[in-house]
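Hello forum,

I keep getting stuck at the same step: I have a sequence, I want structure tokens, and every attempt I make locally crashes halfway through. Rather than fight my setup again tonight, could one of you with a working pipeline run this one for me? It's a single chain of 255 residues.
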Amino acid sequence: MDRRKFVHHTASGVLTATSLSQLGARGVTPAARYKAIAFDAFPIFDPRPIAALSESLFPGRGAELIAAWRTRQFEYQWLRALGGQYADFVRTTDDALVFAAKSLKLELSSATREQLVQAYTRLTAWPDVAPALEAFKRDGVRLALLSNMNPAMLTSNVANARLNGMFEHVLSTDSIKSYKPDPRAYQLGVDAFKLRREEILFVAFAGWDVAGAAWFGYPTVWLNRLGAPAESLGAKVVATVPGMEGVAALVRGPA
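Reply #2:
Ran it on my machine without issues. Output:
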């Protein structure tokens, strides 16, 4: 992410925190349009430090490595799921990193490899997350994480981001030995909340996850923090928003 986008998104997080705080201070608790919200991991956890670490380890090549790594990371997950050869998020992330480094002819030591993979377990929250989650909980909206990360990664990141107690459910697709966009992955939210899918707002970070959740039948919002282009997959979403304030407006807005 370039500096202009970084400043924009950081500022958006501060504005969101302020507006939500003011809403609570006025004692306004409008009825929620949705009974629950299921978040993918990355609308909550900020992955930018991984990119920064990559650049520090491979000066001038970090962005290139991150792009190749991320693409292969999800390709490996989907290919393994389709082929009936499941491996969890840590394994697929590690394998994808090895391939990405080889494809770019970068020397990847075992220590550097471990450092980069472990960065996925030490993430912090985006600046606008904690105030928004607190406001949702005050309004009685139930919250969950629904992620392809394995349970240990989710537990570690929740603790590192100081979000313990915020989520009623922390759901990993590892429990079904598959990955989103497998419909069984999205069904985890329905089963955990014991609500109809129409009552659960799904908040996605990636365009492919937007499509998967919408195909499943969740009302889906794309929290497009990085300004990515929409995928051409024919999925209909409730809205595309740049930050958590947009999610809050959807939950509290008129039906």
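The CA atoms of residues 151 and 172 lie 6 Å apart. If your local run keeps crashing, start a new thread with the error log.
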